[in-house]
Amino acid sequence: MLYFMGYTDSPTNWTGNFTRAVKEELIERGIAYKMLPPWDWQTRTKCYTNLVETKTSSEDVWLIGWAQSPAIDRVKNMRGRKYGIVVGLTAMPFEPAVLWESEKSLCERKRLNCYDKLFANSHWCKECICRAYPELSDKVVVTGFPIDFSIYHPYLKTVKEDDLVMFNQRFSLEKLHILELELAKLLTAEGYRVMHLTGVSPKKMVRFSPGIKQLVSNASSAGLEFCLNPDKETYHENLAKASVVITTSIADMLPSSLIEAIYMGAVPVAPNNLCFPEFVHPDNLYTPYDLKKIVDLVIKKPDRHHSINQYDKKKVVSNYLREMELI
C-alpha cells in the first residue's frame, strides 16, 4: 500500500494543487493508495494519535509531501520505505521558517535522515540539501514538482495588457519586497502599471509582519498597486492579464507562481541565480539586484521558450513512482 500525505489546502496558494495533481495521477494509473491527513506548517489540528496502530508491511511505501513534517517522527517506526519531498530548507538563511524563528522546532537534519530517499524539486534544491547535510547526498534525487497545467486553460485566451507588469510572489523579506517599490518607481516612470497580486490584504500583511508597515504605506506613492485575490480563480483571472511578471526572490527552491505565469503567457523576468536558470531562458535572466537590467528586460519583453514542461504532473509523478519502485 502507498500511504500519501499531501498539504493543507489553501484558497490562495499552491498546496492544494499539489495534492490534487498527485492524487489524480495515482487514480489514473490505478495505483492503490491511502490518503493521510496533512501535517505541515499550516496544519492546526494534528490527526496522528492513531497512526501507531496502523498495520503495515515491509512492502508498504510512504510518500510525505513535506519532508520536514512532524509526522515522520511517528512514520519512521512503521514498516515500509519512506520518501519525502523537499520544497524548502531551513539551512538556508532566508527560508521563511528561519525568518519566523521556527526552524529549531522542525528538527530538519534529524527528520530528513529518516527517509530512504529525498525528492528535491530542483537541482538547486538538491545542491542546497547536499551542501547543508552532506550525509544525505546519496539519498537525494531531483524529481521536479508536479503541476497540473490544465487548471490554467480557461485563462489562456485572456487579453494581455501591454503595459501591465506584475509581481505574484509574497510581499516579504525573502522576496526582497523593497526592490518591488524601487522597480515600481522606475517602471511607472516608463509608463507601466505595476501590480502586486496577493491573497492577503495589506492590513493583514502588516498585522502578520509589523516590520513591513512603512513599505506597505509607501507602496502607493511608489506606484505599486496591491490587488487582493480572495480565491484562486480571481488570482488566475488577474495574473492572465499580465504582460510581464517579475520575481526578485532570494529564497526559492522552485516557484510555481512564476511557472504558472509563464504558462499563461507572461514574459518572465528572473534573477540569474538559485533555481531560475533551470527553466527560464537566459535572455530573461538578470544579474541579481540589477534594477537597470530588470527595467531593460521589461521594455524589451524577450519572447523565448522556457522549459516548464518538465514540471508537468505526469512527468513528475512518473519520477516519484519510478524512484519508489512502483512502476
TrEMBL record:
InterPro entries noted in UniProt: GT-like_domain_containing_1
Top-rank lineage group of the source organism: Bacteria
Name of this chain's protein: Glycosyltransferase
Biological source species: Metallumcola ferriviriculae
Species lineage: Bacteria, Bacillati, Bacillota, Clostridia, Neomoorellales
